[in-house]
Amino acid sequence: MKTILLGYMGSGKSTIGKLLSEEKKLPFIDLDHYIEGKLNKTIPEIFDVEGEIFFRLKEHECLKELLERENDFILSLGGGTPCYAGNMDVINKKENVISIYLRTSINTIVERLKKEKESRPLIAKLNDGELHEFIAKHLFERSFFYEQASHKINTNNKNIDDILLEIKSILKKR
User: What domains does the chain contain, in order, with CATH numbers?
Assistant: First the structure.
């Protein structure tokens, strides 16, 4: 079983994914890092040099490539991955794949991202008010795609252990 975590930046995909992979003794793959490794460039460099359309094409190709692998793994998608190139259709048509949306409120995301704005080029220059508006707009636009995940977990007011328990409960049923 391939487990795919999706949600907005700051929703906990990488943190949860790494912990889940340790517990399940499965490889953890961060799709953005995978793309960076294949192209030997950082995501900001890819956007700056090649543009977003090129990035989204490579992102789609890499996602399909990973889903064709025989082995099981935990995969953390980029926040925008579900929204482009029919990626949710690709994910949902695979039999050995389970997708989990880490549904996180705007306020929770804002609080998390305030602490790490410098490391996130999309939001680095936004003040707190702009950050809230930016996230609210993105979540509104992206929620249609996120909601297509086979499972949704509300992460608000939950600690990491509670979220992991919910995911493990979902995975037991499969």
Answer: 2-163 (3.40.50.300)
